[in-house]
Amino acid sequence: MFKYHCLNPISPVGTEKFSAQYTKTENIGEAEGILVRSASMHEMELPENLLAIARAGAGYNNIPIDKCAEKGIVVFNTPGANANGVKELVIAGMLLASRDVVGGIEWVAANKDDADIAKTAEKAKKNFAGTEVQDKKLGIIGLGAIGVKVANVAKHLGMEVYGYDPYVSVDAAWNLSRDVKHVLNVDEIYESCDIITIHVPLMDATKGMINKDAIDKMKDGVILLNFARDLLVDEKAVLDGIKANKIRKYVSDFPNATTAGQDGCIVIPHLGASTEESEDNCAKMAVKQMMDYLENGNIINSVNYPKCDMGVCDQAGRIAIFHKNIANMITKFTACFGDNSINITNMMNKSKGEVAYTMMDIEAPASEDILKKLESIEGVFRVRVIK
Fold it and tell me: Can you give the pLDDT at residue 170?
């Protein structure tokens, strides 16, 4: 029996997927699994028996992933589960910026008491004239689940699409329209595209990547879209670009004091994944990944441990070991079983940066003595008996 705790409201479409082996607890201290959306966990005391945290969404900057790695706590996210919802809002944002729909709507609201508003509007509408997106060049920085979907829709809208992602995955490449031009230097996007949208994770290497230097390289009148993370963009530099007529519109899904209410900015209250379908999909994926890990030890879509999938164990036992990614660890693990004449029938070892994860299927259950020997090996964070 496993116990899980929800730090945020999680769609019941997802939590209903838990089997009878799972019970929800309001006491986080006894939870083996935690489901979370936006609640910050950085100052939280993590329970000793906590095994997994599943973030119902793609971002994970609210979770102390390094601290969790050192405790042998697997942190999952749900990349792609909300991609369609975000994609649709990106397209909407692009159209709102190209056509001054917001300005027009605000004008109508301000003139609602004009009895002859229909006639007045015919004279005023020239102030809100925009441009079409067809035949415009769209630059997409980051070809993950969302970037690929945006690229494919843009092609159907008749746009010329450029994509930049030095780490594009095989799955993304298969799903990407063959008509998208994959560029190897992001400067090509800055210099040639009419509209630029960013879809990369927030890391040290990407923080503030849209800065003054990048903006200076862009075409005059460029439209910028940010539905990924606010800190990817130096928004003070964006405001300077708007004042200098370098940037025509900046569309962001992250309201803050810098851009809210500023001329040239269309700021949306973080609605990218705020659809029923997105929340349901994220919850279902988070629950599915957590169950597979708690029951079988398999890791899919973890942000702090490597992917490792050995299916369902059909042997007498399965052991999972969380450890540092250093030499000679496997030799030490196997010796613990060999010294006790226990045969290892299947094994998988994967690493991710400074940490590694090893699973072993064994022909006889591991004794307490073996477990203690494994735990005592220098560099081991945690040993878990799965079966």
Answer: 67
Q: Express each pLDDT in 323-357 by its tens digit.
A: 999 999 999 999 999 999 999 999 999 999 999 99
Q: How far apart are the first and last CA of the chain?
A: 13
Residue 339: CB atoms within 10 A of its CB come to: 11
Give yes or no for a contact between 282 and 275, defined as CB atoms under 8 angstroms apart: no
Beta bridge partners of 33: 4, 52
The region, left, alpha or beta by phi > 0 then psi within -120 to 50, assigned to residue 37 is alpha
User: Long-range contacts: 306-309, Cβ < 8 Å, 24+?
Assistant: 306/350, 306/351, 306/352, 306/355, 306/356, 306/357, 307/350, 308/348, 308/350, 308/357, 308/359, 309/348
- pLDDT tens readout for residues 234-244: 999 999 999 99
The closest of 1, 7, 12 to 287, measured between CA atoms, is 12
Q: Which residues contact 127 (CB under 8 A, 6 or more apart)?
A: 100, 103, 107
The predicted model scores a pTM of: 0.79
Q: Residue 208 burial by CB count (10 A; 0-12/13-18/19+): exposed, middle or buried?
A: middle
* Nearest of 193, 263, 267, 262 to residue 226 by alpha carbon: 267
Left, alpha or beta for 284 (phi > 0: left; psi -120 to 50: alpha)? Answer: alpha
The label of the residue with tokens 């089997």 reads 19
pLDDT digits (tens, 9 = 90+) for 159-202: 999 999 987 776 777 788 889 999 999 999 999 999 999 999 88
Give strand pairing partners of 269: none
Q: What are phi and psi of 176, to 5 degrees?
A: -80, 135
Stretch 32-36: mean pLDDT: 98
- Helix or strand holding residue 223 (H, E): strand 222-226
